[in-house]
Amino acid sequence: MEWKNSLVALYVATFVSLFSLIRLVARKKPWRSTYWYGREKQPWLRTPKRRGAASTVLPSTAEQNTRASNSTHLYKDLYHKLQHLEQYPQILPTARDILISLFSETLELASQKPKAGILSIHEYSRDALSDFQRKEDDKVMDQWEEYLTRRMAKGPREMFSTKDEAKWWLVQSSPVKYVDGAWLGHINKITTPFYLRHVTKNAWQVLSEELGDGDIEKNHVYIYRRLMEVVEPQLPTGDDPDFIHPRHKLNEHGVWKAAVAQLLISLFPHQFLPEIIGFNMHYEAIALSTLKAAKELKELGFDPYYFILHISIDNGDSGHTAMALEVAMEYMALIQKRDGDAAAQHTWKRIQAGYILSKCLPTAPVCPSFKNPTPSPLQNIERFPRSDLEAEVIRIFKAKAAVSQKIHCSSRIKFGGHTITEWLAPRALEFEQKQMEFLDALSNTKPWIYKGDSERSRFLKELSWKGRMFGSFTPSEVCTVREWIDSLGGGQGYNNPKFYWHFIGKNEIPSEKIFQEQDIRADHPVFSPVSANSICTQVLPSISCLPRAASINATVIPNLSIFFPLWFAHPCLLEDFVCIPAKTTSPISCSILKILRAQSGFGAEDAIVAGMDEVRRNNNIGLVDLGLEMVRRSGFSEPTCLRDVLNTWKSDFALFMLHLCKRPTENVGLLLGLTMAFVDLHNTISLSSTLLSEDSQHLLGVMVDRERRNIDICLEVLQTTPPHFLDFCRGYHLGRAEIDRCFDQTSKQ
Ligand SMILES: *[C@@H]1O[C@H](CO)[C@@H](O)[C@H](O)[C@H]1NC(C)=O
Ligand SMILES: *[C@@H]1O[C@H](CO)[C@@H](O)[C@H](O)[C@H]1NC(C)=O
Ligand SMILES: CC(=O)N[C@H]1CO[C@H](CO)[C@@H](O)[C@@H]1O
Ligand SMILES: [Fe+2]
Ligand SMILES: [Fe+2]
Questions:
Q1: Which tens digits make up the pLDDT trace of 88-127?
Q2: Is the domain of 349 the same as that of 414?
Q3: How many whole angstroms separate alpha carbon 357 and alpha carbon 353?
Q4: What are the backbone dihedrals phi and psi of residue 418, each rounded to the nearest 5 degrees, phi first?
Q5: Domain containing 199: what range?
Q6: What pTM was computed for the model?
Q7: I need a surface site. Which of 115, 194, 200, 382 has the fewest CB within 10 A?
Q8: CA 395 to CA 471: how far, in whole Å?
Q9: Which domain-ending residue is among 442, 475, 493?
Q10: Distance between CA atoms of 125 and 333, rounded to whole angstroms?
Q11: d(Cα 184, Cα 280) in Å, to the nearest integer?
Q12: Which of 37-41, 301-305, 667-671 comes out lowest in average pLDDT?
């Protein structure tokens, strides 16, 4: 502990002087901006502007806080569900809708100052972007220097006034720290088109470093957890269902919202790739609040290691800032080359949208003694009812609640976790908070309500002739409800989901359409209604022997039409284990990350993070690259994506694996068992001079060593849980049976 503390002290001292030095050397024009990271007042709680007379009386701060904590509840709920998507796949369409309204909300805000920030780059060029990023960095460094000058002149701390406040800040920040890296969680999937893989792999390296490259001591979430063990020992881990319980008093609305935005944007890696790349670029830039926090935490006797780490690892020369910028530039160059300038400009808009989302949702809470006591007009004021129309709608529902038993008994409508019967229980809508929750939950529940579109809203159909609630509302009441639905989201104002589509210049693609047309060979995420595990359990009797089947005869050429689909699909097996940062702090997931690194062709884990070295390394040959080489050498034309492979060579087993891997928690044993079977295959192929060049054979051989080392670690852990071990054996034998089929068939010919 002693040595570690002095090391930390040294770090802080070094960074303080290092940054001052950088500033002295690279002194540019005096800095004049009014921009302050983390001080910018963001309308976290902005309500949609709706029709009707707005009251001019502002609620008190206490009132605002109550309201905020209540709507925070919605984000907390999402925070939990998004980290346990296996259990809640049905929230995906809503998740996409919320993501798009967050884009809209932040873009609309940023568009008020189109000459500032990233929106000032109308036409993308490499120079314009790197210029911009350097200026942003300079700004932070100037601010940091001014801060240091103030502090040197005996100025007070600017983040935390007391030790208690620092503690409060650390604890309140935990929701966002516990999802550190989440926005990149799904960035590099087997379903990613092959031409994009170079870009997405480089972005994945940033994720890998957030997760410590498989070394738990370097895993950012783990490091924060260690800090919490000292600061607030009873706080559960971020993926624990108890974490969102109100008794922990984690009530900083903006922190939850930012954390949920990170989880949301990661979810749709194919639909929102440019946005993720833009988000990453802003998120990985160094923030003034991190610099200040590192220094002030140290002064107050807290371990600032987490923050120090984020100063060093995110640096603009070789760290995450540089990597994120490089990823964006490479991506833009690729689009420009493939699809032309117009497509590139369109893509640039979307990168901006992602950047703005991160920028406008600050993650650092402001301590009570630094909070602005008078709410600025830009800050959202959540008053309720928010319009006359809303007041009228609430009056109607309250009246129904009083006689509720009569009306909705036959309706199956459920939203916000309650049935309509529960919402409208007698006296349930007595309090304003409940009323607001009710309206917000109802208006966010498709297909019952489509904001701004009463025609499509099923809720209204239920109220009409032949609807199950027909007659329970008078015609004028139905009319009011219709007006209310039409007033939602459709017009001007914040939370208008259409703003995003308008900004990127595309027609809206509704979520329900997207999720009807999903193809597991090309899209993500896709959940099958049936549990693949249960199918597998039926197919395979229990086998509990230690899995070591006979080695495969390497001189036999496999039946390529069985082999290729397996080869291209099986990299999916472990992909989804590392997408939720809070779930990456176990020995198994660390080993899995190392296997994934080996399989994607990343260098062996070093004592220090690779950073830009990994981006500049160009021989990172992974399973997909090896697959493409084998396809070429066998005289076939190169596939462009997994769907292409599976169109050419049909394989039920490949589809089975794709379904299975979407549920890593449920299928951990099976997936690892299958992986082990494929390591046998890797080993066989590494000996086959027909399919691979000598260099590639060697690379694959090295991969096998790394895979085996880490599978053994996983196996050791699984053996302590008999059901998982049983699954492991099942998975292994299942995989080997299919792999052996590739080889048997040819030998029979
Ligand atoms: C491997 O297969 C080749 C050709 O089919 C055969 O000649 C050889 O004996 C086999 N080796 C083993 C160990 O089965
Ligand atoms: C390879 O397997 C496929 C599918 O089982 C089969 O139709 C085909 O005849 C096999 N080809 C060879 C050369 O064995
Ligand atoms: C409906 C609801 O959850 N209301 C809560 C809003 O927040 C206040 C204070 O935190 C609670 O007392 C209410 O029960
Ligand atoms: Fe991090
Ligand atoms: Fe980072």
A1: 999 999 999 999 999 998 998 888 887 789 999 999 999 9
A2: no
A3: 6
A4: -125, 155
A5: 100-151+159-367
A6: 0.79
A7: 115
A8: 17
A9: 493
A10: 9
A11: 8
A12: 37-41
Is there a domain that residue 511 lies in?
A: no
Res. 164 pLDDT band, cuts 50 70 90: very high
681 and 650 within one domain: yes
| Binding site membership of 553 for ligand 1 (Cβ less than 6 Å) | yes
Integer-rounded Cα radius of gyration of the chain: 27
Q: What DSSP line would sit under 494-556, residue for residue? A: TT-THHHHHHHT-----HHHHHHS--TTT-SS---SS-HHHHHHHHS----S---PPPP-TTS
Cα separation, 104 vs 110, whole angstroms: 10
Same domain, 641 and 719: yes
Residues with CB under 5 A from ligand 5 (ion): 284, 314, 320
Asked whether the beta carbons of 211 and 578 are under 8 A apart, the reply is yes
**What is residue 152's three-state secondary structure?**
helix
> To the nearest 5 percent, what fractions of the chain are helix, strand and coil?
60, 0, 40
Q: Ligand 2 pocket: which residues have CB below 6 Å?
A: 559, 561-562, 745-746, 749
CA distances from 281 to 65, 130, 177, 328, 696 (A): 32, 11, 18, 7, 34
DSSP per-residue string spanning 261-310:
HHHHHHT-TTTTHHHHHHHHHHHTS--HHHHHHHHHHHHTT---HHHHHH
HSE-CB for 534 with a 13 A CA cutoff: 4
Q: Is the beta carbon of 554 within 6 A of some atom in ligand 1?
A: no
Say how far apart CA 367 and CA 158 lie, in whole Å.
9
Predicted local distance difference test score (pLDDT) of residue 224: 98
DSSP bridge pairs for 52? none
> Three-state SS for 18?
helix
CB distance 505 to 349 below 8 Å: yes
**Which of 34-43, 93-102, 415-424 reaches the highest mean pLDDT?**
93-102
Do 172 and 304 fall within a single domain?
yes
- Residue with the smallest CA separation from ligand 3 atom 6 is 70
- Residue 74 covered by a domain: no
Residue 565 Cα to ligand 2 midpoint, Å, equals: 13
Q: Return the residue matching tokens 């999720």.
A: 515
- Nearest-atom number in ligand 3 for the CA of 437 is 1
Whose C-alpha lies nearest to ligand 1, atom 7? Answer: 555
C-alpha of residue 221 to centroid of ligand 4, in Å: 8
Structure tokens at 255: 């922190």
Strand ranges for 397-470 from DSSP E: 414-415, 418-419
How many angstroms separate the CA atoms of 669 and 428, rounded?
A: 46
**Ramachandran bin of 379, using left for φ above 0, alpha for ψ from -120 to 50, beta for the remaining angles:** beta
Q: At what angle do helices 288-299 and 126-152 cross, to 10 degrees?
A: 30
> Mean per-residue pLDDT for 601-627?
75
Nearest CA to ligand 3 atom 3: 70
Q: Are residues 343 and 437 in the same domain?
A: no
Count of residues for the chain? 749
Q: With b meaning 16 or more CB within 10 Å and e meaning fewer, what string describes 702-737?
A: ebbebbbebbebbbebbeeeeebbbbbbbbbbbbbe
Query: Which of 560, 562, 566 to probe ligand 2 with, by most ligand atoms within 8 A of CB?
Result: 562
d(C-alpha 671, C-alpha 569), whole Å: 13
Residue 627 lies in a domain: yes
Same domain, 333 and 241: yes
In this structure, are 312 and 438 located in the same domain?
A: no
Greatest alpha-carbon pair distance for the chain in Å reads: 86
Dihedral pair phi/psi, residue 419, rounded to 5° = -80, 165
H-type alpha helices, 382-431: 388-402, 420-423
Asked whether residue 422 falls in the same domain as residue 316, the answer is no
**Mean pLDDT in residue range 693-704:** 95
CB atoms within 10 A of CB 192: 23
- Centre a 10 Å sphere on the Cβ of residue 474 and count the other Cβ atoms it contains: 10
311: domain CATH number?
Answer: 1.20.910
Number of structural domains, the chain? 4
Nearest CA to ligand 3 atom 4: 433
